């Protein structure tokens, strides 16, 4: 058995010729249809689930747990009671025969369904309601198959001698599980009796088929033994109990037969996937991208990892795992340039996801890796600054707000930002003068903003009436005012930060 290179505890299902690497279902690109290597893009060689499936005798504990669920157990109990009731009323023989057929038919239909589902990789017992209809006709078909086989053996013994008859009988007994399997798969009598098909099945499975026979024999003997023990003590309970135990064993055996089909699917020429490992039938594009990132990360191909992360941010802007993982990666690997680039994206993401409690700690983490980092959006800076002010980290708050009127001259909330800055400066020792200047600047900015608003309103009115308005001062566009007024407002120095740090 081969294991996945990236998940050393999981069995491999694919092999890449190019990379000489084994992979599991999780670590391959399964879009659109053919599996391809995440690393080199080559088509992969499928190893099938047969590689992963453990032999059936190792699965015995699971097999015995298979019928232990409410649905299967209630069917076992009901059919057992029904068939015992049928035996207890011989006077109404038609009714009792019907009841018996109904009970046995339901159990047979359910057993065949179990086999089929297991062969397709479903390791949990199906719902009883799935196996509700057609039980009696299946039972009659199986009865016909058995009668035909018995007649064949009898005829052989009669016409060709007891030796040939005995040999044929032996072969029929050996083939009987294979015939049952074929019957479950096709629900056709002719297909089931076809000796070549049964022999081909036995040939494909090989020695484990013999083990299954031994196993069935042990179970049948144990039912007989149980009956002898309990039958002597409580004859009345004995029938119900015996019927229940044999029904239970029947389900276990049909599950095991189905499991053998699943295990030898490659030799039998079909392909099924186990649902044991809670694998989804179809992966989401985001999950596939996440899986590829994990593979490339384990391969150490960081350049492609970064490219894929940026692709993920665009494609899945609401998928937290990509943002969180990439941030963790940059933080642990101390990638300064990448962190400076990604920092604002991550802070915006946290804001968008209402994870505001994370904003300041993440901001500080980013600055540990990229010391000069400041967010690229003025609103985010103000938001961070007011949180930091509340937390008492005034130095960092000043850094965030300082010089904003130059970097974001068009930001509408500039006055509020500077009022905030002035209240922060007031908290610092020897900064009263600066705080006052800052407040003055905020007031000036407010006036500019008002004038700007007025000018914009007038420009709009002008557009609407198509008449020039004389109120407007000539040659002064709103942006020019900002630049002009901005020039003499350059007052807030970087020093308060240093003095604050000294004060701390
Ligand atoms: Zn894997
Ligand atoms: Zn490859």
Tell me briefly what this model is.
The protein has 504 residues and is an all-alpha fold. The protein has 22 helices and 5 strands.
Structure commentary:
The strands form 2 sheets. The chain has a 3-stranded antiparallel beta sheet with strand order 2-1-5, with no helix packed on it. Helix 4 runs antiparallel to helix 5 (about 160-185), helix 13 (about 320-335) runs antiparallel to helix 14 (about 335-350) and helix 17 (about 395-400) packs antiparallel against helix 22 (about 495-504). The chain has about 500 residues and is mainly α. The longest helix is centred in the C-terminal third of the chain and has 34 residues, at about 430-465. The protein has helices at about 60-65, 70-90, 95-120, 135-160, 160-185, 190-195, 195-205, 205-235, 235-265, 265-270, 285-300, 300-315, 320-335, 335-350, 360-370, 380-390, 395-400, 405, 415-425, 430-465, 480-485, 495-504; strands at about 15, 20-25, 30, 35, 45. The structure holds zinc ion (ZN) (2 copies). The site of one zinc ion has 8 residues, from loops.
Outline the secondary-structure elements.
Layout: E1 14-16, E2 21-23, E3 28-29, E4 36-37, E5 45-46, H1 60-65, H2 70-88, H3 93-119, H4 135-160, H5 162-186, H6 189-193, H7 195-205, H8 207-233, H9 235-263, H10 265-268, H11 285-299, H12 302-315, H13 320-333, H14 336-352, H15 359-369, H16 378-390, H17 394-401, H18 404-407, H19 414-426, H20 432-465, H21 478-487, H22 495-503
Antiparallel strand pairs: 1-2, 1-5, 3-4
Helix pairs in contact: 2-3, 2-9, 3-4, 3-5, 3-9, 4-5, 5-7, 8-9, 11-12, 13-14, 14-15, 16-17, 17-19, 17-22, 19-20, 20-21
Bound molecules: zinc ion (2 copies).
């Amino acid at each position: 058995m081969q294991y996945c290179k990236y998940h050393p505890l999981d069995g491999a299902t694919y092999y890449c010729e190019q990379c000489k690497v084994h992979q599991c279902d999780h670590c391959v690109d399964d879009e659109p249809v053919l599996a391809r290597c995440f690393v080199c893009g080559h088509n992969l060689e499928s190893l099938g689930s047969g590689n992963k499936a453990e032999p059936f005798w190792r699965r015995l504990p699971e097999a015995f747990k298979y019928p232990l669920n409410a649905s299967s157990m209630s069917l076992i109990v009901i059919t057992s009671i029904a068939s015992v009731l049928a035996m207890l009323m011989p006077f109404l023989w038609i009714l009792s025969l019907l009841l018996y057929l109904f009970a046995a038919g339901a159990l047979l239909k359910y057993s065949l369904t179990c086999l089929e589902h297991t062969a397709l990789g479903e390791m949990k017992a199906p719902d009883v309601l799935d196996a509700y209809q057609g039980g009696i006709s299946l039972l009659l078909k199986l009865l016909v198959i058995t009668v035909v086989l018995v007649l064949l053996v009898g005829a052989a013994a009669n016409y060709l001698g007891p030796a040939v008859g005995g040999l044929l009988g032996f072969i029929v007994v050996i083939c009987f599980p294979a015939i049952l399997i074929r019957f479950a798969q096709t629900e056709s009598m002719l297909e089931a009796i076809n000796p070549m098909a049964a022999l081909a099945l036995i040939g494909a499975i090989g020695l484990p088929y013999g083990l299954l026979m031994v196993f069935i024999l042990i179970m049948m003997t144990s039912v007989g033994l149980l009956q002898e023990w309990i039958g002597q003590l409580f004859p009345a309970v004995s029938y119900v109990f015996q019927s229940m135990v044999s029904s239970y064993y029947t389900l276990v055996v049909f599950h095991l037969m189905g499991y053998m089909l699943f295990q030898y699917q490659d030799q039998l020429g079909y392909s099924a996937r186990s649902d044991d490992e809670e694998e989804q039938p179809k992966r989401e594009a985001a999950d596939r991208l996440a899986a590829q990132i994990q593979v490339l990360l384990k391969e150490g191909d960081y350049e492609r990892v970064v490219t894929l992360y940026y692709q993920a941010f665009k494609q899945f802007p609401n998928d937290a795992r990509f943002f969180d993982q990439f941030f963790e990666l940059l933080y642990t690997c101390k990638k300064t340039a990448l962190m400076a680039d990604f920092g604002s994206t991550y802070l915006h993401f946290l804001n968008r996801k209402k994870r505001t409690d994370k904003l300041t700690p993440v901001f500080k983490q980013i600055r540990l890796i990229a010391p000069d980092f400041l967010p690229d959006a003025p609103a985010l800076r103000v938001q961070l600054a007011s949180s930091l002010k509340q937390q008492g980290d005034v130095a960092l708050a000043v850094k965030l707000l300082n010089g904003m009127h130059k970097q974001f001259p068009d930001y509408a909330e500039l006055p509020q930002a500077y009022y905030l800055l002035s209240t922060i400066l007031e908290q610092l020792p020897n900064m009263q003068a600066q705080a006052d200047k800052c407040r003055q600047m905020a007031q000036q900015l407010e006036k500019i903003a008002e004038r700007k608003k007025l000018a914009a309103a007038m420009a709009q009115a002008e557009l609407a009436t198509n008449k020039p308005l004389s109120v407007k001062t000539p040659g002064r566009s709103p942006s020019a005012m900002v630049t002009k007024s901005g020039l003499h407002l350059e007052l807030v120095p970087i020093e308060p930060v240093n003095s604050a740090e000294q004060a701390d």
